[in-house]
Amino acid sequence: MSATLEIGITGIGAFMHGAPDWVSLRGVLLGTHGLDANAPAKPAAARLPAAERRRAPDGVRLAAEVAEQACTMAACDPATLPCVFASTHGEVGITDYVCETLARAPQEMSPTKFHNSVLNAPAGYWTIATGCTAASNAVSAYRRTVGAGLLEAAVFACSEDTPVLFAHGDVAAAGPLVDIMRIRALFGMALVLTPRRSGTCMRLALQAAAADPPIPESVLALQAVASDNPANAQALVLLAALAHARPARVRLPLSNGLSLDMEINV
Q: Per the structure, how many domains does the chain have?
């Protein structure tokens, strides 16, 4: 792709333990305050009906929370927004449960948990809760998930001339998977992207080069979510650039020899 994509960012959502929304996380990234130990450890996900909230896994609640925050900030109706939900590993706790149950007693498999094990569960819960009939998609690209999901959402916004919701989130690993993934805490973020220059603007282009974005000190301080998950670290690098509200350049990996170059203007 030789042409660049220009998108606006009109809404931002974020959640991690100690910073349950974009306002609080922005303060952490700017160094004005630290994480709040008394903040909620799990997202409220108020958009989901009560019965759905009770049975929804952490990844679904996380995605619904940050998506709701971004839509509220953008003052847009989520029922009208196409959406892209991204995750590096999906619902790791349920993956552990499914594997353990299949090995021990397959007939005891919970239909609800099996239903929640698929990668597009957050998109399903979100579109049902909001009454959204626009296009929805689920993206996973391991360590390149954030760049891949963001590119998917930006291309859709520009090609279809419509605002698009992009949400990324990962939850803590469980069982034997902890030793492999080493993800210790949940983290999620969301953006509402517009095809027109409104609010903060990003110019996106593909570069034929690998990317290994430098990690700012403010992101390195968030060890629980940044140190063991490259996708979370990349998302935080982007959010740190947006937090400072000044021109910046961020490059995120898409493959071994391709990256997504983002020029941010305020």
A: 1
